[in-house]
Amino acid sequence: MDEEHLHDDLRVFKDRNFFQLRLRSFFTVYLLLGLFFVLIITLFAVSLSRVSAISSKLNEVQPERKQNFSDRDFLLFPCGPGSREWEYFNGKCYYFSLTRMSWYKAKAQCEEMHSQLVIINSYAKQNFVMFRTRNERFWIGLTDENSEGEWEWIDGTDYKTTFTFWKEGEPNNSNNNEDCAHVWISGKWNDVYCTYECYYICEKPLPN
Ligand SMILES: [Ca+2]
Ligand SMILES: [Ca+2]
């Protein structure tokens, strides 16, 4: 009888001991999990702050880089990186149109782009224009519509004392109705009626 009782006591003791051990191991696991969680949160916070620090530094650097790029772009495209259709020649910018229209519309179109129809006042400029126009007709800023035979450059450049490059036999004021000038074959000038539709060349100073 006594022996049986003792046996029971021993079993209870063992069970209790086992229960305590399990409890302790659970506690350890939860503690480790908790620590791991805290560690993850900390690492995340640290990396997040680093990323934000780097991005704010990049933002500081960005305008400087942009400035450098635009300086370089201005060297490559002196007429402005944002308007690459303007071509640079000898200190000025030129636009060779892709559409055809009357001399008046072309003049207005150039003015809308803060420029004017080209003034060809030197052989160098003539050479640049004729290389670029390749026998195609392009309006220039020359007209005698105010007074027949009195040719005038639209910027007031004195016609009589400056360079000319008329085609042989031109200006001929054909049908008494040719008051506007364009470049044509070999870049030579011809007078034609002003409502004729052809390409045009605008000219403007270098942007600041
Ligand atoms: Ca005329
Ligand atoms: Ca003519």
UniProtKB/TrEMBL annotation:
InterPro entries: C-type_lectin-like (IPR001304), C-type_lectin-like/link_sf (IPR016186), C-type_lectin/snaclec_domain (IPR050111), C-type_lectin_CS (IPR018378), CD209-like_CTLD (IPR033989), CTDL_fold (IPR016187). It comes from the Eukaryota. Residues 89-203 form the C-type lectin domain. The chain crosses the membrane at residues 27-48. Keywords: Disulfide bond, Lectin, Membrane, Transmembrane, Transmembrane helix. SUPFAM superfamilies: C-type lectin-like. One of its GO terms (molecular function) is carbohydrate binding. Pfam families: Lectin_C (PF00059). This is Hepatic lectin-like. It comes from Aquila chrysaetos chrysaetos.
